[in-house]
Amino acid sequence: MNLPSLHDIEAASALVYRSMAASPQLHWPLLSERSGCHVVVKHENHNPTGAFKVRGGLVYINRLRQRDPGLTGLVTATRGNHGQSIAFAASRAGFRSVVVVPEGNNPDKNRAMRALGAELVVHGQDFDEAAAHARSLADAQQLHRIPSFHPDLVAGVASYGLELLRSQSDLRRVYVPIGLGSGICGVISARNALGLDTEIVGVVSAGADCYAQSLAAGHCISTGSALTLADGMAVRVPDPEALAVMLGNVARIVSVTDAEVLAAMHYYFSDTHNVAEGAGAAPLAALLQERELNAGQRVALVLSGGNVDGALFRRALEL
Predict the structure, then answer these.
(1) Has residue 70 got a pLDDT over 90?
(2) Range 287-293 contact pairs with CB under 8 angstroms and sequence separation of 24 or more
(3) Residues 53-145, CATH architecture
């Protein structure tokens, strides 16, 4: 995949800003005190759907409508935030949206997708089984299937990377959670387009580390399971295009445990009074792992979303 140029990202950003405002990047003194460095948080949890994915959905569907004006229906698979982004953008474009989620998916995210107009289908034990069913529905119902990784999605979510790095060009490093890869590839795109030397560190769950294994090996490695409370990172089959972008552009990938993620969710609330879902809190967990490395430096964390269900958030607050 060719990375979007600065012009491409700016054009995608203009599409995004028709439906939402830029999200803030804020310095939190208590979080910095805890981390031993100057911390800036990119608050994608403040977006209309509560997560960064909405940016990609808006760009993908806008460009799809221009390419295929006769299209009426879409299908995709998700653990929640991607599905909300597609439902949000599809409703504005007048498209029918069908979203496939695995069994046991976050009930709050399911409710949100329905409220945004999606037809929800529950199928499979995990994201990858849900994605296979979405492909079947696309064929059976003549729906356009939206993947979870695509150049238009990357261009859309790169808008948050551009916002962050234009306002904080002296950052030493940025910690970014990895699901299927659009978010970190968007940050890479913005960093490279601006010609900065900011280090980009990916973050995965220790129970869903296919990208950590793949980056180390230099080729895609699937895992037999993706067991983590951070549903936004619960991927066991990496995308080859996403991995190709990461190779040579990501300094390293840090694996964090569920216990570390829960603690980071707690710290976000106690130090900033923000709600972070598992994937959104994972970069803070990684920063705390690398506390000595970051001592005294300027570092950014991508709080990618705040769509956590109540029961899990209560566990975090009770720590």
Answers:
(1) no
(2) 287/35, 287/37, 287/39, 287/175, 288/34, 288/35, 288/260, 288/263, 288/264, 289/254, 289/256, 289/260, 290/201, 290/254, 291/35, 291/36, 291/37, 292/36
(3) 3-Layer(aba) Sandwich (3.40)
pTM of the entire predicted model: 0.95
Q: Is the pLDDT of residue 256 over 90?
A: yes
Count the Cβ atoms, other than its own, within 10 Å of residue 206: 16
**Run of H or E residues at 299:** strand 298-303
User: In angstroms, what CA-CA distances link 114 with 89, 123, 144, 234, 275?
Assistant: 13, 16, 19, 22, 22
Q: Which H or E element spans position 202?
A: strand 199-205
Q: What CATH number does the domain located at 6-52+151-317 have?
A: 3.40.50.1100
Helices (H), the chain: 6-16, 29-35, 53-67, 81-93, 107-115, 127-141, 151-167, 182-194, 210-217, 240-246, 258-272, 278-289, 310-317
Q: What is the dihedral of CA 8, 158, 77, 225, to 10 degrees?
A: 130
Q: How confident is the model at residue 149 (pLDDT cuts 50, 70, 90)?
A: very high
- Report pLDDT digits (tens) over 131-144: 999 999 999 999 99
The percentage of residues in the chain with a pLDDT greater than 90, rounded to a whole number, is 93
Q: What is the CA radius of gyration of the chain?
A: 18
Burial class of 140 by CB neighbour count within 10 A (0 to 12, 13 to 18, 19+): exposed
| Domain-wise residue ranges, the chain | 6-52+151-317, 53-145
Q: Is the pLDDT of residue 80 over 90?
A: no
